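Colleagues,

For the teaching module next term, I've prepared a clean inverse folding example: a structure given as tokens, and then the sequence designed for it. I'd like students to try predicting residues themselves before seeing the answer, so please don't circulate the second half yet.
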């Protein structure tokens, strides 16, 4: 198992994983739109994408967006995406990706990592096993119509 910080040369390896991730969340498959989205993220460097390999095959990724806590006046990451190909789940790839994200956070001296997931997502057990805590504060979201 290898975890790498993705760059532009990894675009073709990330796109199928990102598209599959979106399909997992009930979105219509759209590899070309996925390519454009990931390409823009890599070009603008407004995200960090970690990609997991089983030998030389890409099997999972996580995407970290930069943000800030104005109260603590510290930077933080928002872990927006975590996905492991269904054929490679329960083999430690998700754990490795999350631990690599934590290491990056520590090395950059960021406050922490926030993530949000569906209440039915079985990955909650994984997060809790790695010392992630449920935030009891309310979260609201406004959608631009």
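(Answer key — instructors only)
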């Amino acid at each position: 198992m290898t975890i790498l910080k993705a760059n532009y040369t990894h675009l073709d390896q990330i796109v199928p994983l990102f598209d599959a991730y979106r399909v997992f969340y009930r979105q219509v498959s759209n590899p070309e739109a996925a390519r454009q989205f990931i390409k823009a993220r890599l070009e603008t460097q407004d995200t960090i994408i970690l990609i997991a390999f089983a030998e030389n095959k890409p099997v999972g990724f996580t995407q970290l967006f930069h943000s800030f806590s104005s109260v603590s006046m510290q930077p933080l990451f928002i872990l927006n995406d975590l996905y492991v190909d269904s054929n490679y789940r329960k083999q430690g790839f998700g754990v490795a990706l999350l631990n690599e994200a934590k290491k990056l956070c520590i090395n950059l001296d960021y406050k922490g990592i926030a993530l949000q997931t569906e209440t039915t997502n079985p990955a909650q057990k994984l997060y809790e096993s790695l010392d992630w805590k449920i935030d009891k504060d309310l979260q609201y979201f406004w959608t631009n119509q």
